[in-house]
Amino acid sequence: MSLSSAEESSSTPADGGSATDPSHGPPPPPEQPKSTWTRRLIILAFWAVIVTLGWPHWVFTTSIHRSDLPLESMNRWADGKACQLHYPLYIGLAWDDYDISQVQDLASQVQSLLSAENDLSLYDFYIIADATNAETSQRATLLAEAGGELRGHREHALFVNVIADPSAKSTSASLRTWRPVLEVRHNPGRTVDSTTLAPFIASEIRKVYEHEKDAISHLLKDTPFTTSGQVEALSPEVKSSLDARRTRAFKYAATYHLTFSLFTSSASPSAWEAEQALEESISPLLDRLSSISEFTVDTQVQLLASFSPSIAGPQYNESTQEWKLQRTDLSGFVNAAEWPLNPGIGSGPTINFVLFVPSEDQSPLVLAETGGNSWLIPQWGGVQILNPSGKQSERLSAADLRPVMLTFADQLSALLGLPDSPASPSLRITSLVRERATSLVLSASSTLGALARLSLKLTSIAIPDSVAKSVDETILRLDEACHDLREGRYHRALENARTAEGEAEQAFFEPSMVGQVYFPEEHKVAVYVPLLGPMAVPLVMAALKEFRKLRGTKAKVA
Q: Domain of life here (predicted)?
């Protein structure tokens, strides 16, 4: 009994556990400090590589370069605060057989009358007395031949010549065709002095610039460049006319390509003296317009040209014995599928002029509504029908083409946006210079504002150095254009405004900048998180574990 008790007591461990249980074996030896620091150095090395190499490399490869833009200046132009548009007009005045003091007195009275009127508030008139007649003045002749401008000098917008004419029954005024000269004729036998001439001259000057004032007011309307009282409300008729002129005209370009095409329904005429006809009728207009844009010209002949299958074709009218084209056929008259019309050559738009010669069995061919033979296709070109008369010649002479080219010249003027008045083409071209300069300033300013808003709204969009350079050039050119406008140097203002508009468009549509719109910040998260997540979790957990052990060791020591 006592032996059993002793055996039981000897077989039972003091702590009450099993002597053979492996889970309660001796504890592992304590970790050596060297091993602990080795593990910590390894973890630290991983984090050092990430912080010193990985993170900078990731930031460098994923960051977007954004050049600094002069946003304040850009917004000032967009808001119309950088420039107040105004148009000084320098008008030379000469009076035959009167001394300079009398001419100066007349000039002063005319300027006072023009300044007193509020209907031309966009303009500042400066009437300059000239001791010599504008016909004999060397400076006036040079200015007139240059379209009113000498490079680097203020432009004389108009010359007024007061001429004594004993045969004149009353005071009258007329404009020269190709010179900016207004001739005022009066009868010296009647009692005529500066007090009676001044109101008449002031009234004629207002008439010259009335249409231009409406056109520029229409441009500035509803833009930030409009100031209170500067732009008047236009009548519905005037507004409709200006809208129609803008709709049919091409957008302004530095270069236009003109294509004159002869299309015939039969095999004749097979040639035309187009070069000579163009030289006589079109070249004088192009020479005057060269201060606004450059022009290239080519010609072509196409025989056996058929009508477009999309139109019904001409219908024969028994009563008038004419073939008539309906209005619905005009828009599809040009057979673009078969006629070799070049859609564009070079950087500028192509203006097409088509002369169509119908066959003898379908002539005379006229328009059903008007009985005419020409029409305009807005922002494309002009078409004219030349009905054969009598025996059909194999070659159209320059004399045959003269009226055709004159019609093409009128169509070209309309397609380029040339104003309808005044009667002098020279003055209409100088008016177009001011209109084009104004529209380009407005366009470039609006583009700068759009670019500024885009850069602020899309913070992930790239802004290359080329964009910043173009913006700086745009602002510089706009400043120069504004200064030139206010100084009366309109051709230089047009050149600067044209460059500004081109640079602004180039900056806004920079390909490398536009492409970044499709790669926002969310794209980075979607690409990199699945890659970096599995790598970051072990490193973060190991660092936290070592941090806890270090804190526990410090607590035991304390």
A: Eukaryota
Q: Could you count the other beta carbons within 10 Å of the beta carbon of residue 270?
A: 14
For residues 201 and 205, give the distance between their C-alpha atoms in angstroms, rounded to a whole number.
6
State the sign of the Cα–Cα–Cα–Cα dihedral 419, 421, 426, 430: negative
> 459 in helix, strand or coil?
coil
Residue 428 has which token pair?
A: 């209409």
Q: Which two three-digit tokens encode residue 548?
A: 């806890």
Which DSSP helix (H) or strand (E) runs through 42? helix 33-49
For tokens 């009167």, the residue is 98
Cα–Cα nearest to 514, from 447, 455, 471: 455
What CA–CA distance (Å, rounded) separates 383 from 353? 6
CA–centroid distance for 527 within its chain: 40
Task: Give the chain's radius of gyration (CA, Å).
Answer: 41
Quick one: tokens of 558? 């304390």
Residue type, 531: L
Average pLDDT for residues 347-373, to the nearest whole number?
A: 89
**Whole-number Å distance between alpha carbons of 223 and 444:** 13
- For the beta carbon of residue 19, count every other beta carbon within 10 angstroms: 9
Name the more confident of 121 and 78: 78
| Helix boundaries (H) for 509-520 | 511-515
78-92, 274-288, 353-367, 528-542: least confidently modelled range: 528-542
Residue ranges of domains in the chain: 88-220, 252-415
Q: For residue 51, what is the DSSP state?
A: I
What one-character DSSP code corresponds to residue 364?
Answer: S
Distance CA 531, CA 28 (A): 38
Q: What is the dihedral of CA 89, 92, 98, 101, to 10 degrees?
A: 60
Residue 140, pLDDT score: 45
Confidence of residue 350 (pLDDT cuts 50, 70, 90): very high
Architecture in CATH for domain 88-220: 3-Layer(aba) Sandwich (3.40)
Measured CA to CA, the distance from residue 319 to residue 371 in angstroms comes to 14
Between 236 and 412, the higher pLDDT residue: 412
Which amino acid, residue 306?
S
Q: Cα separation of 441 and 480, whole Å?
A: 11
Q: Which of 138-142, 241-245, 438-442, 518-522: highest mean pLDDT? A: 438-442
The DSSP line for 282-329 is THHHHHHHTTT-EEEEEEEEESSPPPPTTS---EEETTTTEEEE-HHH
Beta strands in 36-175 (DSSP E): 87-95, 123-129, 156-164, 172-175
404 CB-side CA count, 13 A? 25
Cis? peptide before 56, omega within 30° of 0: no
The pLDDT > 70 percentage for the chain reads 85
Instruction: Write out pLDDT tens, residues 446-472.
Output: 999 999 999 998 887 888 999 999 999
